[in-house]
Amino acid sequence: MTNVKPSTFTMAIRITSIVFLALFPLFQVACYANLLWNRNRLEKRIKSAIYVASLAGWLAYFNLIVSNLGGVPCGIFYATSLLVAPLSAGPQIIRALTLRGMNKYYHLVAKEEISSRISRSKAPSESIETGVPLASGKAEATLIMERTKGIVKTTIFALLVTPILLIIFAITVTSDVRKLLETDFIQCLPEPISFQYANPALGITSTVLALGVPYIVRRIDDELHLATEIRRNSIFLGCTHISIVVMRVLGVYDEWQPLMQTIQQMCLSTSTAIIPFLPSSPTFDRISSWAMQRGKRIKPEIKGTIPGYGRPLPKRDSTAGNVIERRMTRRLSAVNIMIEREAVVSWDAGLCVLLSSEDGINMFIQHCSKEFSSENILFWCAVNDYKEKYDKEKEILNDIDEESVLRSKTNSNLEDVDIEAIARQIYLMFIDTYSASQVNLSSKQKGDIKRALDAGQLKRETFDAAQKEIFSVMSRDSYPRFLSSKKKMNR
Do you know which PROSITE patterns this protein is assigned to (predicted)? Predict the structure, then answer.
């Protein structure tokens, strides 16, 4: 065999490949470091899908090493090339299906809660009967989540099995088995005929699936802009897969294949691990996954002096002179005085004002449902309802004698205010490990609430620490985005 001098075109490809051999690992490490640094901002993102997509990048990089250094059987190179497309497009499909299910679930939960609050405000006498929000009407939302989980599991199975079966089929029907065992990359090209058909077939399928993802999330309007990120990733993957298929048809893809796949995966990593964390500005509003808002927060040393951190809601239609109403009036006045005195524009105080009215609560519930965190505001409202009913029960017990208590129990009015049942329902709905609407609390806070429930030592302050923690999360994360969304709507 005569030695053929590489053409200028081939040399350019090799030099570019060597550059990317050095650049890719540094770039990927930087992406991982950025994800780690911003790990607290990976809200409602499927982290496993992100890391699976990055695995496709490392497979492409492995092929780039093989194309330059050799030393690996050609069969492994062919199989790895087949896996890159489904491993990069598959996670976007999984994220899109999950996001659509979450969007429907949180929309139904928010709609049910707002309807419940409106009906209770119109008929206060019936408000005792519903101990905790979402006690009814949650079945449909739960069914949607279960159905989504089933669809996602089936899709994952199909995405894993299909390329594996295709690889086995391509290897089985290959006539020149010796070529699969060659370790000189020059001998690997062109691919065996079975892989020449299998590779573009899987690439075209991945292209169609990637371009179909924007259709799945077309009606999703989320405040975290996760749908925008998924659309951006999928459209980019679809376009690059199309270019790869076109190059293959034109017969110029063989030498470019490892380099093209590596560049494609680096761009996907940029879209997934860098663009979502760019600072918010008019330039990046459309390409950033969510706006990183910064603002003043109330100082820790005066945080405890602000009333309303765990403040109950104003009474709906309570009679004049009611003890709880007077207490609420004093607290609301204290908030107003504090805000005027300090003249501080802080997230905490602003959220207090917003949640002091039913309309404000309903607006915030709608906003939180769009960023898939409505469990926080629903938990906050549920604890307020618990405190309201706790005060009502204590007021009844203090105002009537023992004989009247026994008589009222048999007549049913006091039975409706079952504090223990309400507290246990809050625990099962928002705190229990297996709850679909679990809020993010420390193990110590969960343990304290569980022990109080098991011992039957419920107090008005049983949920205070948890409520303050969730209030802090909302004021730090959800409320700034709420303000940002309102500003955009008013432009």
Answer: RGS (PS50132)
Name the band, by pLDDT with cuts 50, 70 and 90, for residue 456.
Answer: confident
Look up the pTM and report it.
0.73
Most confident of the ranges 117-131, 313-327, 329-343, 440-454: 440-454
Outline where DSSP puts E strands in 157-299: none
For residue 151, pLDDT over 90 is answered with yes
Give me the phi and psi of 442, to 5 degrees please: -75, 160
pLDDT at 298: 36
Tokens encoding 321: 């002179």
Residues 207 and 339 in one domain: no
At residue 308, the 3 state secondary structure works out as coil
DSSP structure class, residue 431? I
Task: With a cut of 60, say whether residue 427 has pLDDT above it.
Answer: yes
Residues 368 and 256 in one domain: no
Whether 29 and 230 have beta carbons less than 8 Å apart is answered as no
* Predicted pLDDT at 193: 84
Neighbours of 238 (CB within 10 A): 21
Distance CA 373, CA 436 (A): 12
376 & 459 share domain: yes
Which of 434, 431, 477, 476 lies closest to 453, judged by CA?
Answer: 431
Check whether the bond before 190 is cis (ω within 30° of 0): yes
DSSP 174-242: -S-HHHHH---HHHH-SPPHHHHHHHHHHHHHHHHHHHHHHHHTTT---TT-HHHHHHHHHHHHHHHHH
Give 450-489 as a DSSP string.
HHHHHHT---TTTTHHHHHHHHHHIIIIIHHHHHHHHHHH
How much of the chain, in percent, has pLDDT values that exceed 90? 9
Residues 36-49 pLDDT 10s:
887 766 666 667 77
230: domain CATH number is 1.20.1070
- As a whole number of angstroms, the distance between CA 235 and CA 297 comes to 39
Same domain as 346, residue 271 = no
Its domain, for residue 113, covers: 8-277
Looking up tokens 């492994």 gives 76
**Residues 326, 238 within the same domain:** no
pLDDT higher than 60, residue 130? no
If one counts the domains in the chain, the total is 2
Contact 293, 481 (CB under 8 A): yes
CA distance 202 to 87: 11
| CA atoms of 427 and 478, how far apart (whole Å) | 23
Summarize the confidence of residues 432-456 as an average pLDDT.
Answer: 87
Instruction: List Cα–Cα distances, 172 to 74, 175, 185, 192, 224, in angstroms.
Output: 15, 8, 21, 11, 47
| Mean pLDDT value across residues 192-212 | 84
- Neighbour tally for 463: CB within 10 Å: 28
